[in-house]
Amino acid sequence: ITYKNLLVWIPDPDEVWRSAEIIKDYKEGDKSLQLKLEDETLYEYPIDLQGNELPFLRNPDILVGQNDLTALSYLHEPAVLHNLKVRFLESNHIYTYCGIVLVAINPYEQLPIYEQDVIYAYSGQNMGDMDPHIFAVAEEAYKQMARDEKNQSIIVSGESGAGKTVSAKYAMRFFATVGGSASETNIEAKVLASSPIMEAIGNAKTTRNDNSSRFGKYIQIGFDKRYHIIGANMRTYLLEKSRVVFQAEDERNYHIFYQLCASSSLPEFKDLGLTCAEDFFYTSQGGDTSIDGVDDADDFEKTRHAFTLLGVKESHQMTIFRIIAAILHLGNLEIQGERDGEACSVSSEDEHLSNFCSLLGVEHSQMQHWLCHRKLVTTAETYVKSMSLHQVVNARNALAKHIYAQLFNWIVQHINKALHTTVKQHSFIGVLDIYGFETFEVNSFEQFCINYANEKLQQQFNSHVFKLEQEEYMKEGIPWTLIDFYDNQPCIDLIEAKLGILDLLDEECKVPKGTDQNWAQKLYDRHATSQHFQKPRMSNTSFIILHFADKVEYQSEGFLEKNRDTVYEEQINILKASKYQMVADLFQEEKEAVPATAVRKGTPRISVRSARPAFKAANKEHRKTVGHQFRNSLHLLMETLNATTPHYVRCIKPNDEKLPFKFDPKRAVQQLRACGVLETIRISAAGFPSRWSYPDFFNRYRVLMNKRDLCKNDKRQICQTLLEDLIKDPDKFQFGRTKIFFRAGQVAYLEKLRADKFRAATIMIQKTVRGWLQRAKYQRLRRATLTLQCYARRHLARRLFEHLRRTRAAIILQKQYRMLRMRQAFLRVRNATLTIQAFARGICCTDDLPGTMLVEHKATILQKYARGWLCHWRRLRARRQLQALRIEARSAQHLKKLNIGMENKVVQLQRKVDEQNKENKLLNEQLSMLTSAHSSEVEKLKKELQQYQQTQQGDGNQLLSLQEEMERLRMELERAHGEREVMEDSHSKERDLLRKRISDLEEENTLLKQEKEELNSRILCQSEGRKNSEENIQMKKELEEERSRYQNLVKEYASLEQRYDNLRDEMTIIKQTPGHRRNPSNQSSLESDSNNPSICTSEIGDTEDVIQQVEEIGMEKAAMDMTLFLKLQKRVRELELERRKLQAQLEKKEQEIKKSQVIETKTEVSSEHEDFAYNSLKRQELESENKKLKNELNELRKAIADHAMQNNSSNDVQDSYNLLLNQLKSANEELEVRKEEVLILRSQIMKAAQQKETGENMENVSPNASWPNSDRHVDQEDAIEAYQGMCETNRLELFQLDRAVFSGNPQRACAWAVCLQSSSNIKRKSLLVNKVLSESHILL
What spans are recorded as compositionally biased (Polar residues) (predicted)? Predict the structure, then answer.
């Protein structure tokens, strides 16, 4: 084997792994490898001779960028990291398969790959047909649920900021789109609407993520038989409650706090007392309270809209916001230290304490006291102990965390209730959005629980992958051999086994003085020999656990406090007694909570709790420890996941700066190790990781086969023959039924053989092609050379011809030039010769001069005649030209030429004329304006002159004008009188017409009455059969209403009973603690001020029997319960209200009877008879209910009497007891009077019914029939005088009572109260009695 030119991966401190090429062949025993890096630098890589570990081989370039990491030939960490980096940075693909795991890298950028059309594109497709996507995983889960009829789960994990919540949200969006509800319930919209609510109350800003989920959730989406969404259910895990009271730097509290503060200016939130988030301690510890690009007010509107969509009432929403605001006010309490911090207190005037108590509806004084004190219960006594400043702050923070946790659970329960359906669920798909493995500089209890959960999930993941591998091998018929993979069961046993970390933690929490240091010491002693547990060298309070992903050091400080989650019972009891029902329900324990009405098959089921409270153990634990609860919920989650088919999504955070498409190899490989992707690859690599189907293998490697083998039809036999020839070791591959399995590296070996084959074929092809190319090039050069030679020779021939032509021309020019020179020389010689000859001859001929002159004269004559002929010819020519010009002047063309200039002149003149016309027009307009102005001024002057003249004449004519005015007014008065007469005439006529019309209508009315009577008789016959069914329906409705009222009464009775227990405990503590007694009237005022109707569920019966029973016991032993008397008073008020209602109904009946006697006869009487029957039935029901209430009151009296026998009262209470006994007797007498009045009213109703029956036989009903004494006239002045007298007497009584109370005379005040008991004014009587009782308690 040659290693030269192979590509390998070597470790690198910056990029984790770096690619290099081997430049020198490696031989066994060499201490180093000679490598060349990608930047062409040489590097010597040392080799460990003992371990003989060579660097990892790099995959061929053809395999880089694969959709599935398991398709790589070499499966190891650098190959996986490089493949993810190439896909993420070069192709911008954020999803990659790793077997059954989908690896999702957060791009920190919005990508257009989640639209509706993308969902429909992935719907119905197989998982490997399209690119990796979260929709592909969701479609695979949906398809397997429909195909296999088995529940599915999608497990989304990763560290904070990796995109878990977004991936889970997109998966739910896919299910909501593909499996939309068949009905109009819009359940998929509700499923999606739960996301903004859970993000508001469960997400917060951290240093790693602006919207980090601080809890885990498992959402089950239910489907029916047709696989439509019918409902959903949500379970949450380990809410980070510590964030409510503490935030690190650059972090925030939960979003809902800032959203509510941002919307505090809304009018409906004025009563919450909120301002900006910087003003509250619980929201300002992290520094900056805002997030870039996030509008808290807008998000708050989305949260409220989601609440409304899920059916949360407006009143419940306001209560939720009140509780959240109360938590903020609780954090701003000013706690004042006393006695060097050993004790502390909260001012009663603290504004935030008042807001906290008013928002939650609890007692101000009780909350002020129990915030700074705690109760210690022993077998003998109960002590109230003051707490130190540190303890009070911890108790306050624990209370705030507990309130928020209970509110969080209530909201989750309400969301589940809104998403619940009555349709039977056929199957479900669960989406688990849970925290990933975490390790920080300081790791506490939260990180311990998170990593414990990830250990359990990793174990489930490993077993599932191992199981899939085994199923694949069994299906293909491959011999199964055990694969060695990492099993983290020892680490899980270290945490959750008997006497493990959680057990020792719970045990230390039960110790009264247990500390974190003691717990850490127990861990050192117990688990020092464990291979997954280590003790740090430099710390005695920390411990190290070797998790599957990394080694984590935990600080034990705070483990006990967070595991206990201590909330003092006294504070919870105060919250249970809140006047707001929702606040009280938040803190009711499950076994004490009143169950809601369960409707099944149309029959309501009412669960009634016993009126006698169960015995409560003193200072019992409020709940189980957090670790125990988390362990139970985690086991339940594991059972659910093991019962489903899981699908895994591992989210990776590429960088810590939240920059888009930036890949940090260090952070990525750390998360790959933690999320189990590399473990999946290692398990796959331990067996046969590479798998090829026979057709794919045949198509890929057919180049390695012979022509003789290719002629066969059996592809499987061809593949077997090829592999047996190429790979000699039979353990390196196995033949399955449909696939061929290869060991790691065998596919790369086949790829190398395939590449060598292709390389040889390529060399042959290159040789042939290069020869052909060179031959073609030679021929092309030869043709070009011949062409160039042809052109060159032609050019040379042309040049030679031109040279010859020029040479011949030069010779000819030389010849002609020489000839010319010779001729000129000859002519010069000749001319000279002639000249000499002429002079010579002239000298010789001087004798012939006259002949010469004659010749000259003749020549002159010839010149004259010649010149005359020329002048004649010129004159003739000029005359001909003149005639031609005259003819031309008479032609049209000549005229046109002349007119051209004239037209231009005419146009210019026309322009001048227009300009002058415009100027003339302007001048005319100015002239007209001047004339009009002149005329107007003249007329104005004329008018002024006339007015002046009239003013002079007006004095004389004024009398005449006054007379004319009087005449005019007189005429108008006469005309008005005439119009009045006309109006009176028309009014009289219209009145006559109206009277006539009324008479006609009365006649028609009588006719209609007759027809009505006939129709009523028919309707009565027909409606007799329907009355029974309608009455039954009405009775059922009333029964349902009564049952719901009774349920509310039971709930309110439970809350009041809790408040009574609180006050009773306080009274016992006050009695046992000297110098710290409270006014016992607080208990009575606490229960008397309540407006709950559940107190008044009994009627006073035989009160004298109870009084006699108390007298038999004795005055010293008897003790009167204040609540009994107040209940009796309240019952008297209710009886008075019932009497008034009956009186009002009686008066109403009288009016109806009067009207019916005038208008209706028979039909109305029958309807009133039905009303009377209904009233009688209602009265019977009230009587039966009163009997039940009497029985309950008798039981209450017996309980009070038994209590009185056990308690010994002092002599100071005898007077007040006698007074209360007298008041009870007077109340009993007053009740008897009310009973007599009710009997009188009943007798009057019976008489009215008898009169109606007698009136049916009368033909003419008297319209003046009335009740007795109804026509008695009462003068208005007498009534006013009587009313004033009654008011005066009431004032006098109140004044004397106040004087008696405030002068310190309780006997006189009690006497006045007894006198007022006989009064008929129930409200005034109860008010005075309460006042007297409170003052008498103070004086006593």
Answer: 1080-1097, 1257-1269
Interior CA angle at 1229 toward 1225 and 1235, to 5°? 140
HEC readout, 731-776 = HHEEECCCEEEECCCHHHHHHHHHHHHHHHHHHHHHHHHHHHHHHH
Is 160 among the annotated ligand-binding positions? yes
Classify the C-alpha dihedral 626-631-632-634 as positive or negative: positive
Residue 1183's nearest CA partner among 1267, 1099, 1117, 1286 is 1099
Q: Is 728 annotated as a binding residue?
A: no
Burial of 526 (0-12, 13-18, 19+ CB in 10 A): middle
Expressed in angstroms, the distance from the first to the final Cα of the chain is: 109
Distance CA 213, CA 142 (A): 26
From 1107, 1099, 1338, 1329, select the one nearest 1232 (Cα to Cα): 1099
165 marked as part of a ligand binding site: yes
Distance of CA 883 to the CA centre of its chain: 113
Angle between helices 1214-1256 and 1306-1317 (to 10 degrees): 10
pLDDT score for 1084: 35
3-state secondary structure of 931: helix
In this structure, the strands spanning 101-105 and 645-652 are parallel
Residue 1306 vs residues 398, 1221, 1335: alpha-carbon distances, Å:
47, 16, 8
Taking residue 1226's Cβ as centre, other Cβ atoms within 10 Å add up to 18
C-alpha 666/C-alpha 664 separation (Å) is 6
Query: How high is the pLDDT of residue 1285?
Result: 57
Determine if residue 833 is labeled as part of a ligand binding site: no
User: 10-residue block means of pLDDT along the chain (1340 residues)?
Assistant: 79 89 82 86 82 80 82 84 91 88 91 90 86 93 88 88 87 85 61 86 86 87 89 87 88 93 91 91 90 90 91 92 94 84 85 92 91 84 86 90 93 91 88 82 87 88 76 78 70 91 91 88 91 89 89 90 84 90 83 37 34 37 73 89 89 88 89 75 68 83 81 80 83 83 76 85 94 95 95 95 95 95 94 91 70 82 90 90 82 66 72 83 85 83 79 67 79 83 81 79 78 76 67 77 75 72 70 45 35 36 44 42 57 70 73 61 48 57 62 61 52 51 60 63 64 52 40 49 55 52 48 47 48 45
What does the angle CA 765 – CA 769 – CA 773 come to, to the nearest 5 degrees? 170
Check whether 159 is labelled as a binding-site residue.
yes
pLDDT of residue 320: 94
In a 3-state reduction of DSSP, which class is residue 1282?
helix
| 222 annotated binding-site participant | no
Using an 8 Å Cβ cutoff, are 438 and 450 in contact? yes
Q: Which of 287, 377, 389 is nearest to 338 (CA)?
A: 389
d(C-alpha 154, C-alpha 221), whole Å: 11
99 is in an annotated binding site: no
Return d(Cα 430, Cα 645) in angstroms, integer.
10
Residue 1068 has, within 13 A of its CA and on its CB side, a CA count of: 13
Ramachandran assignment for 120, one of left (phi > 0), alpha (psi -120 to 50 degrees), beta (any other): alpha
Edge-to-edge strand order for the sheet containing 101-105? Answer: 95-98, 101-105, 645-652, 152-157, 427-433, 216-223, 229-237
The answer for residues whose C-beta is within 8 angstroms of residue 89's C-beta and 6 or more apart is 661, 663
DSSP state of 424: P
Give start and end residues of each alpha helix (H) in 565-625: 569-576, 581-586
| Residues 543, 274: Cα–Cα separation, whole Å | 43
Q: Is the separation of the CB atoms in 344 and 388 below 8 Å?
A: yes
Question: What is the amino acid identity at position 137?
Answer: V
In angstroms, the CA 281 to CA 283 distance is 6
